[in-house]
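Deadline looming. Please check this record:
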Amino acid sequence: MEQCLIENLYDMSGTIAAELFEGLKYPWEALPLIGDFIKKLGPTLDPAVYEQKGENIWIAKSATIAPSASITGPCIICENATLRQCAFVRGNAIVGEGATVGNSTELKNVVLFKDCEVPHYNYVGDSILGVKAHMGAGAITSNVKADRKNVVVKYGDKRYETGLRKFGAMLGDHAEIGCNSVLNPGTVIGRWTNIYPLSSVRGVVPEYSIYKSSNDIVEKEM
């Protein structure tokens, strides 16, 4: 499961939440910790840069927030981030520096790294999206299995029992998700990997890959 190690997916200089991942091996181990981490970090933020806008809600003064956006804490919206019309932040969310949360996009229990984009009708729940990761219009994370059992990460013949009932997707830095794709529970997308539009993805997709279908994953030329 080396592809899934935190250091193989994310550049920690691209998030205000680097401390959240300290001492952890796999990024999904951070999912149950996000809310408490925000409550701890928020009061320490520079008041010259951030304003507390409600209970456990801190928003950078340079962020652009549409009047119709809905924000529930715990939440941190970082510098130069954008929340567009009808963005819906349900809590336990860190929106990174320069990140974009678009029209009717919903976030819940997530960390978005610097310059991440979820700009059009996306649902992102119980997920961590790396630096400049991008989800095309209508792409979503599915974070609960139909049988409501705990999520298992699968990579070839390897299986990792996460112990989590809710787990959407881990997107490495610069991952590109095509429009109207579904990332099924326990999906891990490596750095610089592209997912074709209309894909249904589960398990681990290696870094520097192009995912055309579950039976057609090719190495990406860089």
